[in-house]
Target: N-acyl amino acid synthase FeeM catalytic core domain-containing protein
Amino acid sequence: MQQNDVPNSKSFSVKLLDALDHVEYRRIESHEDYEDIARLRYKAYKMQNVLPVGASSMLDEIDFDSHAYVFGIYFYEELAGTIRVHHVTPDHRVCQSSGVFPQAVTQFLDAGMTLIDPARFAVDPAIVGELPLLPYVTLRPSIMGAIHFGTDRVLQHIRPPHAAFYRRVFAAKVVVPPTIAKSYGFELTLLASNVRDVRSTVMRRFPIFQSEAYERRLMFESAAQLAVPPLTILPTARLASKPAVQLLLS
Model:
């Protein structure tokens, strides 16, 4: 499935939840796990011909920022996808999007807004053929982060052909039109979703993005805040969206 191909049907929402039953999330913290993430990023970016210009490593200092949360998505216990979710505030402005669209991000933050900036999205080219719903599963932590931190916007700095996907799924609006990004050597555009305006609609159309509060805490609270930090985190979308799922199946 291409990211601009967004089926809009009850059966599709049910298929998303069925796929999620075989998924686990892992907060990436160990050296070994980071090496696995780097290899997956390289594999995915090489396949799509979107390797950053002059990149010597698929890990960067932003991965280890205090407001960055790097996740591995495991399908049948095999690493299938990854995403980095950055919590951006007026007092902590580090994020990937600000490196490409500094003026736009600064305007949001100067207005007192808080943001979720998803970056380093990558899915295994071999597994996505088996599981074409993988992009939805991989993007789920960005929605969870927006709810957990109560942010105003979710940003999407993406290639222009993918903009239709984010407009349809997340009701995103263009903030900066397609612009050549020097660090990549190709066009990127910046979109943003107004979390409070679109949350109920997105959750109703795509129950996969729902979650229980305790799952969000496991995903985003520090080890010091958790009594027993989990090795992996099981999705709670089916439990959180039970009434919606019953309607979908009726």
In short: The radius of gyration is 17 Å. The mean pLDDT is 89.
